[in-house]
Design goal:
Elements: E1 9-13, H1 18-33, E2 37-42, H2 44-54, E3 60-64, H3 92-98, H4 103-115, E4 122-126, H5 132-138, E5 143-146, H6 151-163, H7 194-198, H8 205-218, E6 222-225, H9 236-240, E7 248-251, H10 268-283, E8 290-294, H11 303-316, E9 320-323, H12 335-338, E10 343-346, H13 352-357, E11 361-366, H14 370-378, E12 383-385, H15 392-402, E13 406-408, H16 415-418, H17 424-435, H18 439-459, H19 464-479
Parallel strand pairs: 1-2, 1-4, 2-3, 4-5, 5-6, 6-7, 8-9, 8-11, 9-10, 11-12, 12-13
Helix pairs in contact: 11-17, 17-18
């Protein structure tokens, strides 16, 4: 007799970093809306914040497994369960290596699901959790991988790794030719992410780890992408060519559009911060007059660079909201008094999506992490691109040159001597061009607004992302088979 069909149940396992977790929580909500049960795996100290975001969705449950305690040999401080808690990015590799020890408790839960005949139709896990592929294979469950990147940046990174010996250029400033990949902009070696160049060193621990997770990646059942087909035209088939067994890249975004209602009880400080920001934005009479500035949770910025940012904003004369992570820095030379009423410097958490959606906000000075890019495009807000780490340089090129939905900020050549890489003059000029009616700025705004309308249609019934999610669920239901043991 044939086995009964699996209950429509999906397991999601985000990496413990805000930028990696939030999109997968949004995906959980999208699945919940389709009456699919979702189990989110995380560790105890991350469970509360996740619960606050998905608590009003009865189809979503949280399963906590203990964070590894056998970490002394890795040099990782105890009590850290999220990258936002790392003293510095030097601890990032020990952190991801520690997460490999989550495999045993994860498999124990899968075994319990197997015994109770409640195995999921798939596991969606972060790229850094490459070990989940082996776990999924033990139980006959498809593993889909989530990168947190856009399709084009993903395709470029994979092409560099695979075709690196054949990428010919006369110098680091000459454009590269990527086999089988057509770029909407020119790209040279000096513009590639530094971490990509590291991967070629077989003796480097980071390179070894990336090789392991990369092998698991290309052998996964499929890839989840927080983007939409219209934005990634021409790149999907290129990235799929790097995967084995006909794996597909599923563009399901913008995932933030599924985050209509956020459940749970918000932190009091966050509520106060949000109220102050909202009231200040509401007071701005001219629509699109405010520039929002935020650089994510990973990259550190020197005090000298923070000084340059606020001096540049003062000279630009544009109302602003500036999110500052540093707890030590304060505005220099009585600048706080001079800027009173002209802008806000936020020290606490802010609701970035809410800010970008506000009628007063007309630009975003951003590090170009993919979440920020897709959220800004979704809101129809153009970007002043300032990439810092990881694949952000590729995202910035896509925004400014490929999509025309933003401008690139100018960096100084010898930033080590100056203590900063973007001068106040570059910030002033970039902000003015984007916000005060320069021709390039007007074109970027029009293009961003057009893309925002397309993004919204993509997740509506009948849209490209809506249909892609339906097809993904249907295929998983067909392909998922209960193991015989």
């Amino acid at each position: 007799m044939a086995s009964p069909p699996l209950e429509p149940h999906v397991v999601i396992f985000p990496f413990m970093a805000h930028g990696h977790t939030l999109p997968l929580l949004d995906l959980s909500k999208a699945l919940s809306h389709r009456r699919i049960k979702v189990t989110i795996f995380t560790t105890p100290s991350n469970a509360k914040s996740i619960s606050n975001k998905v608590g009003c969705h009865p189809n979503i449950i949280i399963n906590t497994i203990p964070f590894p305690t056998d970490i002394d040999s890795l040099g990782l401080p105890r009590g850290i369960e999220n990258t936002s808690q790392l003293p510095s990015m030097e601890f990032w590799l020990p952190f991801v290596l520690a997460t490999k020890q989550l495999q045993k408790p994860f498999e124990q839960v899968l075994q319990s699901m197997h015994d109770s005949k409640t195995l999921p139709i798939c596991v969606i896990s972060d790229f850094f959790f490459g070990w989940t592929l082996e776990s999924c294979r033990k139980f006959g469950v498809p593993r889909l991988v989530f990168h947190g990147m856009g399709v084009l940046s993903m395709a470029i990174c994979k092409s560099v790794i695979v075709h690196r010996p054949y990428l010919k250029a006369k110098s680091v400033s000459d454009p590269l030719d990527f086999p089988g990949l057509k770029l909407p902009f020119l790209l040279n070696t000096s513009e590639l992410p530094e971490t990509l160049l590291q991967i070629g060193d077989a003796n480097d621990p980071f390179a070894q780890f990336m090789f392991e997770v990369g092998e698991a990646d290309i052998n996964s059942w499929g890839v989840i992408v927080n983007s939409f087909e219209e934005l990634e035209s021409g790149s999907v088939s290129s990235v799929e060519s790097f995967y084995e067994n006909g794996a597909k890249a599923w563009c399901l975004g913008p995932l933030n559009f599924y985050d209509k209602v956020e459940g749970g009880v918000a932190n009091i400080n966050r509520e106060k911060q949000s109220l102050v920001l909202t009231e200040w934005l509401n007071e701005q009479v001219t629509p699109g007059s405010v520039i929002y500035i935020a650089f994510g949770t990973q990259a550190d910025m020197s005090e000298a660079q923070l000084d340059e940012v606020v001096f540049g904003l003062e000279e630009a004369g544009v109302p602003f909201v500036f999110v500052v992570r540093s707890t030590k820095w304060s505005p220099p030379n009585r600048l706080k008094e001079r800027l009173k009423g002209k802008g806000l410097i936020a020290r606490e958490w802010v609701d970035q999506r809410q800010i970008l959606a506000h009628r007063a906000v007309g630009g975003f000075l951003s590090h170009c992490g993919w979440n920020s890019v897709i959220e800004s495009i979704s809101a129809g807000v153009p970007i002043l691109a300032w990439p810092m780490i990881a694949e952000q340089s590729l995202n910035a090129k896509l925004v400014a040159e490929g999509l025309g939905a933003g401008l690139a900020i100018k960096k100084v050549k010898d930033h080590s001597r100056l203590g900063f890489e973007v001068s106040r003059q570059a910030i002033r000029d970039g902000v003015r061009e984007l916000m005060l009616g320069g021709e390039k700025g007007r074109n970027a705004k029009e293009r961003a607004q057009a893309l925002g309308r397309v993004a919204w249609l993509a997740v509506q019934e009948g849209g490209s992302s809506y249909q892609a999610l339906d097809k993904l669920i249907d295929q998983l239901r067909v392909s998922s088979i209960l193991p015989s043991n």
